[in-house]
Description:
5 domains, binds adenosine-5'-triphosphate, 5-stranded parallel β-sheet, disordered N terminus, Beta-Lactamase, Rossmann fold, alpha/beta
Amino acid sequence: MSDTLNNDSSSLTVEELARQMRAFQEQTRELDAIIDSSSDGLWICDAEARVIRINPASERINNIRAGEVVGKNMRELLEQGFIDRSAALEALTSRSVVSQLQNREGRKLISTGTPVFDEGGQVIRVVVSERDITEIDNLQRELEEQEAIRDQFRSHMLEMRQADLESRRVIARSPAMLKALRQALKVSAVNSTVLILGESGVGKGLIADLIQKNSSRAEKPLIEINCGAIPESLIESELFGYEKGAFTGAQSGGKPGYLELADGGILFLDEIAELPPAAQVKLLRFLENGRVIRLGGTKARHLDVRILAATHRNLEEMVKQGSFRLDLYYRLNVIPIHVPALRDRKDCILPLIRHYMDLFGERDSIRKRLTRAAQDALLAYDYPGNVRQLMNICERLVVMTEGNLIDLKDLPAEIAAGGSATPGPSAVWPEEMTLQETLDSVERSVLQKALAKYGNQVKMAEALGVNQSTIARKLKRHGLGTT
Ligand SMILES: Nc1ncnc2c1ncn2[C@@H]1O[C@H](COP(=O)(O)OP(=O)(O)OP(=O)(O)O)[C@@H](O)[C@H]1O
C-alpha cells in the first residue's frame, strides 16, 4: 500500500486505469445509444454467426423480442424458417459486404451484412443492418400507377379529340367569320406559326383543326394542350419531356414531351398566355432552333413541329405589363388570325342555332322549332360565352322544352327579357318636346310594337290592359291600321 502511495509511477498507473475505465464506459454508453436509437434494425453476430445483440428497431421490424434470438445461431434461425435468407451468413462466407432483399412478416427489407476484422484479418463480428422499405416501395408503386393513369388519360384525350374532330362542322355566314376562315385555309398550306386570337368560346380550337385538316400534316395527329389546365409544376416536363431520374416521381425510363409526340405534325398550344416564364423561354428556344432538350438531359433532339397557339387574353397588354415575353410574342405572332365574338357576327347566330338544334335533335331523335319571338330574342342576345354558350343553350332547349315549338317563355330568363323588352318611356327627356309630345311618341311606339306582335285589336287590348275601343281610338289617332 505504502509502495503504491510512495511510488509515483504506480499511483499514476492506477489513475490512468481509472480514467481509461471511465472513458471506456462512456464510449460503451455512446455506442449503446447509437445502436438503440437507430431507426434501422441492427443485428450483431460473432464469427460463428451467433447473435450477440439486436436493437429495438430490429425487434419492431421483425416483431420479436431480443431474448428470442440472442444466443442463437443464424443457421438455426434459418432452419427454423424464422428468416428466409441471412446476410450475416453470406457476409461471413464471402468476407465482404452483402446486401439482400428480404420479405419478413409481410414487409420488404433491405439487409446489409458487414464483416468486422481484427488486426490479423480474422472476422470477429458481422453487423447486419435492416431497412424497412415497404413504405418506399408502396410509394414507388403508387407513383408508377399515377403515371400510368396519366398516360392513359393522355391517350384517351387524344382519342376523344380525334372522334370530336370528325363530328365537327364549321358554320360561318358573317363576313368577319368568313374572312377568318379564308385566312385559316390560306395558312394551312404553309408551315408558319399561327396565333389565333379571340374571346373564349368563339371557335379558336375549330380554326386550329381547320388549319391542320387542310395542311400537309393532316395525316399526323394534331396534339392540343391547354397551357392553363396543366399544373405549373408539370408543364415543362409535359411539353419538353424528361430523362430518367430527372425528378422525384419521374418514370424510370424518362418520357417524351408533347413536342416530341407532335414530331412531324402540329402542336396546338391553347391558352398560351398561361405559359409560365421558364416554359416561355424554352418554347422560344425551340421556335428559334427547332431543338428540344428533355428535363434533366443534355442531348438536343431536332424536331419538325408546327406550332399553332391561341389565347383569349390581350397578349400585347401582357407584354407591356411584363407577364409575357416580347420575343416569344413576336415569334408566335407571325400570322395572327382574329376570330370575332358572336355578338359581332349576328349573321352566324341563326345558322348556328339551326345547326345545333338539328344536331342535338338528331342525337336524341327530337325535332323542335323556334317561334319568331324566340328567334328574335336569341338574335338580340349578346352571348358573352360565344358559340360555346349558344351550343349549350340549344342543347338545353332541345332537351328541356315541352312540345315541339320553342317560345320566348322557354328561353333562359336573361335572353327572354332582352327579346320581349319593349323600350320603356325614355328616361332622357328630349328638351325640344313637351310632356304631351313625349307621351304621344311613347304611346305610338308601344302601339306599333303591340300591333306587330298581335295583329288584332282584341289581343292588343288584352296585352295592354285596356278595352278594345280605346285601342281602336288610339290607333286611329296615330294613323295606325289594324284588322
Ligand atoms: N363556327 C362554328 N361552327 C360550329 N361550331 C362552332 C363554331 N365555332 C365554335 N364552335 C363550337 O363551339 C365550341 C367552342 O369552340 P372552341 O373550343 O373552338 O372555342 P375556343 O375559342 O377555342 O374557346 P376557348 O378559348 O375557351 O378554348 C366547340 O364545341 C366548337 O365546336
